């Protein structure tokens, strides 16, 4: 039976594993990835609503956790990176951090075992939200042409400007949102593929004809367990990095000088 099941599982795993079919016929938008995104948003919203339902001076465990998460982002990211202007962005940054964190943790949850962020569309949309936010803040503070100058002009000799201006424009208006999305996507995609390789590799070795290869399946599954803990670390780290870079881009936009 196990051999029959294994024969039906494509090995090695391919990129097609990241593009699941629609859950309902005719509804191409409703895949398990979009379902997990709604679930991640629901978890974050319900958690904070319940945690702050009746706040107490001596916080409950849920209230303490909610306050710690928000305080970590507000103090450690918003204020430290952006400065005194950062407090008004703290709700956005905290929401971004918690949403990405929950979405990333799905990669190690049994029967889910994949993060929606392993699909490039979702990190790209989050990056575009950040992109339009810092563009709006830049145009609001410096004016349209003032922000274009702020974002692209460096205090350098005039003869260097033809080289520096397109490089700075490329970095600010194209590379920053692209790399922000790709960094999150690539890490979660790679983690998912590694877990797939070692999990399915264990079954492949267990069902191999060689008696020498069968015990090695245990090594493969041990690696899967170790990589699961490592994936948890990466999930938290990538949520933090995405939030930190968002704050850094906002700080650069709101700075008085380039």
Automatic annotation (TrEMBL):
The chain crosses the membrane at residues 33-52, 89-112, 118-136, 184-206, 218-241. It holds the Pfam family ATP-synt_A. It is found in: Cell membrane; Membrane. The keyword DNA-binding does not apply. One of its GO terms (cellular component) is plasma membrane. InterPro entries: ATP_synth_F0_asu, ATP_synth_F0_asu_AS, ATP_synth_F0_asu_bact/mt, F0_ATP_A_sf. Keywords: ATP synthesis, Cell membrane, CF(0), Hydrogen ion transport, Ion transport, Membrane, Transmembrane, Transmembrane helix, Transport. One of its GO terms (molecular function) is proton-transporting ATP synthase activity, rotational mechanism. CDD domains: ATP-synt_Fo_a_6. Its main location: membrane. It is a multi-pass membrane protein. Belongs to the ATPase A chain family. PANTHER family: ATP SYNTHASE SUBUNIT A. Key component of the proton channel; it plays a direct role in the translocation of protons across the membrane. This is ATP synthase subunit a. The lineage of its organism: Bacteria, Bacillati, Actinomycetota, Actinomycetes, Micromonosporales.
């Amino acid at each position: 039976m196990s051999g029959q099941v294994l024969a039906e599982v494509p090995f090695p795993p391919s990129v097609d594993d990241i593009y699941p079919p629609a859950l309902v016929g005719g509804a191409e938008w409703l895949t398990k990835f979009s379902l997990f995104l709604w679930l991640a948003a629901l978890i974050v919203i319900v958690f904070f609503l319940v945690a702050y339902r009746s706040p107490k001076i001596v916080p409950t465990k849920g209230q303490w956790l909610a306050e710690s998460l928000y305080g970590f982002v507000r103090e450690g990211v918003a204020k430290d990176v952006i400065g005194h202007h950062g407090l008004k962005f703290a709700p956005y940054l905290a929401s971004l951090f918690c949403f990405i964190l929950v979405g990333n943790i799905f990669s190690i949850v049994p029967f889910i075992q994949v993060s929606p962020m392993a699909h490039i569309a979702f990190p790209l949309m989050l990056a575009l939200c950040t992109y339009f936010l810092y563009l709006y803040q830049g145009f609001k503070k410096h004016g349209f042409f003032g922000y274009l100058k702020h974002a692209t002009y460096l205090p350098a000799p005039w003869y260097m400007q033809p080289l520096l201006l397109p490089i700075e424009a490329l970095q600010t208006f194209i590379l920053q949102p692209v790399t922000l999305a790709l960094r999150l996507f690539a890490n979660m995609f790679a983690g998912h593929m590694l877990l797939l390789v070692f999990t399915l590799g264990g079954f492949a070795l267990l069902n191999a004809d060689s008696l020498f290869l069968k015990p090695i399946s245990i090594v493969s599954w041990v690696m899967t367990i170790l990589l699961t803990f490592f994936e948890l670390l990466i999930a938290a780290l990538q949520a933090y990095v995405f939030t930190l870079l968002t704050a850094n881009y906002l700080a650069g936009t709101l700075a008085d000088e380039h």
